[in-house]
Design brief:
The complex is a heterodimer of chains A (241) and B (338). Chain A has 241 residues and is α/β, with parallel strands linked by helices. Chain A contains eight helices and ten strands. Chain A is globular, with a radius of gyration of 18 Å. Chain B has two domains: 86 residues, Rossmann fold; 195 residues, no CATH class. In chain B, strands 2-1-3-4-5 form a five-stranded mixed beta sheet. Bound molecules: adenosine-5'-diphosphate and magnesium ion (MG).
């Protein structure tokens, strides 16, 4: 069992406001790890600490055995931000080209990767359009395509399926599962949608900067004697279902 | 490679932003033209009297678009009656230029035309001393302020366009996203400086050629030196705009920097006389990039200085740009600790 991401006792505060409190978790290689929690609980902050965009006040993050931040780790992480950071005055293709160039891909590799990523998110026919004409869901998909572009070992996706219709959501999950099974990719995903919890191999429930509980979906449901994750969440948080 | 990716992207974006392109390239020409007509309402047709001057020199002067009237003797009264703008008199081997100077613009124009007509060596050999019938040499007009205006426009528009472009990257999160890729912080800053720098250089070329070739602004020195000065200044404006964009959270806040950062610089450019200023005030001027740019520009365009006479100004401008660039690289740590 290889470990991809190891977070130990991470603490982060913005001024007096403690956003992450003693967070520890392990993400195994070739697994989909889900981080579930209501909005504002600190998921995005944790991801930024993992990617190296924020520095933890305390604790350690190691990715593939090395402490973050490091440039060769950045290359190995495909990151999809919660808010779509796209160049809206450029076309989808130009956005993909730009990010692909940042990863030292040859022209041929770029064409292949862009074709692949666009296929996964079903944006092939819209690549020539300007991003400002995209719908919210299309922008989300383009962000995901950008995260896939350098064929990263680890995917860190911040609420990737928000605003995406159910059919496409299913397709994206199938692709994530394929990446896990066939290519041994590690995927860390955050969501506040409970029905996505079921699909993860490992789950952590988070609230107000603390991890309430973690384990496989099955284990969590039996432990809290619940049928669905809404109930698991409520019980883990100390409320009565 | 990453750096070029960034430069390419900036150029793609700029070419699509017609409004920014117009602001950058057309607005300075428009304002400059307006200023030209305000300060320069009639074409100056100058007449010079000469007494006992070498025939060869007279021909040179005539070629310099100056009407020449030759006299054997000339009294001041007669010169004024003949409405001469000035007269050259050779006395004891020395040359004295007397300027009527009732309209400073005419006197200045005559003096400049003379300077342009005669080569540097001739001027040195002739040892021309200048006398004024009315007033003295402290006279402002479009020819004097236009070098300053040219620099001002370069500074102003480059500052604004680069600042707002970067601000947009900050607020839409693309800058943060960019820094989540392996690109180095210095690559980001140099990418922006070069990407927008290309447009700044095009703008500078356009403004200067327009001012000199179309508006016929006086240019005694070399146009290439003028370009060098303004390209240095554009880099200062660019790096300062990028830096200050991190202290703004909307385009409007970026515009609020104008009265704070741009306007005060005007007072130290020399458009307003600095002789009477208190020492501490003059020292404040010395932290302002436009002070050095104006000094160099008036030197080259109006006084006909050579490059070596303005290197210190250029050095200071480049120094400003370097400092701002370093601050920019450091300030990006806000988005990525590495
Ligand atoms: N840069 C910041 N400065 C101050 N507070 C912040 C900053 N970023 C996030 N926060 C606060 O941290 C908390 C967690 O935010 P976030 O990690 O975005 O939550 P989530 O992604 O789970 O919705 C929120 O209360 C938010 O207001
Ligand atoms: Mg979030």
């Amino acid at each position: 069992m290889a470990v991809s991401v190891e977070i130990s006792h991470v603490q982060k505060q913005f001024r007096k406001h403690i956003v992450l409190q003693d967070i520890s978790l392990t993400v195994e290689k070739g697994k989909i790890f889900g981080m579930i929690g209501p909005s504002g609980c600190g998921k995005t902050t944790l991801i930024k600490v993992m990617v190296g965009m924020l520095k933890a006040d305390q604790g350690q993050v190691t990715v593939l055995g090395k402490p973050v931040p490091q440039f060769d780790l950045i290359e190995k992480i495909g990151y999809m931000a919660q808010s779509d950071a796209l160049y809206t005055d450029l076309t989808g293709n130009e956005n993909l080209q730009f990010f692909a160039k940042l990863y030292h891909l040859s022209k041929k590799q770029r064409a292949e990767k862009i074709a692949y990523a666009a296929e996964v998110v079903q944006l092939k026919d819209d690549l020539k359009r300007k991003v400002q004409d995209y719908s919210g869901g299309m922008k989300r998909r383009l962000s995901l395509a950008i995260a896939l572009i350098q064929n990263p070992e680890i995917l860190i996706l911040d609420e990737p399926t928000v605003g995406i219709d159910p059919a496409l959501k299913k397709m994206i999950w199938m692709e994530l599962e394929r990446l896990r099974d066939k290519e041994q990719k590690t995927i860390f995903i955050t969501t506040h949608v409970m029905d996505e919890a079921e699909k993860c191999d490992e789950l952590a429930l988070m609230r107000e900067g603390k991890i309430l509980t973690q384990g496989t979906p099955k284990k969590l449901k039996t432990a809290f004697d619940a049928d669905n994750f809404d109930d698991v969440f409520l019980k883990a948080g100390g409320y009565q279902a | 490679m990453r750096f070029f990716a960034l430069v390419t992207r900036i150029m793609q974006q700029m070419f699509r932003d017609k409004r920014a392109m117009a602001l950058l390239f057309l607005a300075p020409l428009l304002v400059l033209t307006l200023m030209y007509f305000i300060f320069h309402s009639d074409e100056v047709d100058t007449t010079l009297g000469v007494v006992g001057l070498d025939e060869k020199v007279v021909t040179l002067i005539e070629h310099g678009d100056i009407n020449v009237k030759k006299y054997d003797h000339l009294s001041q009264q007669q010169a004024l009656d003949d409405k001469l703008d000035g007269w050259l008199k050779v006395e004891n081997g020395k040359v004295l230029l007397t300027l009527q100077n009732d309209q400073p613009s005419r006197a200045k124009a005559l003096q400049l035309k003379l300077k342009q007509a005669l080569s540097g060596q001739q001027q040195a050999a002739m040892q021309i001393s200048v006398d004024y019938v009315y007033g003295d040499e402290d006279t402002a007009l479009f020819d004097v302020i236009s070098p300053i205006l040219v620099s001002f426009f370069v500074f102003f528009f480059v500052f604004l366009i680069a600042g707002i472009a970067l601000l947009k990257e900050r607020t839409t999160g693309t800058l943060e996203r960019l820094l989540s890729t392996p690109i180095r912080r210095f690559e980001v800053v140099f990418g922006y400086v070069v990407g927008y720098g290309i447009f700044a250089i095009i703008q500078t070329l356009l403004v200067i050629f327009y001012a000199v070739k179309v508006l016929d602004v006086v240019l005694v020195g070399s146009i290439w030196h003028v370009l060098i000065i303004n390209i240095c200044l554009a880099f200062v404006a660019l790096s300062l705009g990028i830096l200050l964009s991190s202290f703004a959270s909307s385009e409007f806040q970026m515009v609020q920097f104008i009265p704070l950062v741009i306007i005060p610089q005007i007072f130290f450019t020399g458009i307003f006389p600095m002789d009477g200023m208190a020492d501490w005030l003059v020292n404040i001027g010395k932290i302002m990039p436009l002070y050095y740019a104006s000094d160099a520009m008036t030197g080259i365009m109006y006084k006909g200085y050579q490059l070596n006479e303005i290197v210190s100004d250029l050095g200071v401008l480049l120094g400003f740009a370097c400092v701002f660039i370093v601050f920019n690289i450091l300030s990006l740590k806000k988005y990525r600790t590495l």
